[in-house]
Amino acid sequence: MKHYYAIFKKTKTAIEVEFPDLQGCVTFGKDWEEALENAEDVLAAWLAHAEDQFIKEPSKHHQLEHLRGELVPVPVREDTLESYRKLKRFNVIFPARVLKQIDVFRKKMGLKRSTFLQKAAEDYLREHDSQR
């Protein structure tokens, strides 16, 4: 399975993750497990949406071992990569108070913001489309 090395660095509040071969491909987690999960996700998303000229071949371990932090191989998960290829990114604007309510609720449910909004839109369409 193809992989890219990421640098994991522990700070006071989080585990920060950066992919040296992929400019701007960064994430974090509250602990090591969440950081690795987020690293797999951001790697797939970055590769799915980056232009070809920005995608480098993964460096070898010895080429990166001089960097500070924990060097971790992160697999390119084909199923996650494919799911991102099917997605379309767009920007939306919400009133701050509504967004705060969404974030409080979705965190209780263990959902990402985009997953919550997708489910809400699907429910709305299902309810209103059946009335036609």
Structure characterization notes:
- It is a single chain.
- With 132 residues, the protein is of the alpha+beta class.
- The protein folds into two domains: 3-85, Double Stranded RNA Binding Domain (2-Layer Sandwich), CATH 3.30.160; 96-129.
- The chain has helices at 32-49, 61-64, 78-85, 96-109, 113-129; strands at 3-10, 15-18, 26-29, 70-75.
- Strands 3-2-1-4 form a four-stranded antiparallel sheet, covered by helices on one side.
- A hairpin with a 4-residue loop joins β1 (3-10) and β2 (15-18).
- α1 (32-49) packs across α3.
- The mean pLDDT is 92.
Count up the domains. Answer: 2
Strand content: 15-25%
How much is the radius of gyration in Å?
18 Å
> What is the element string, with H for helices and E for strands?
EEEHHEHHH
How many strands, what sense, and barrel or not for the largest sheet?
4 strands, antiparallel
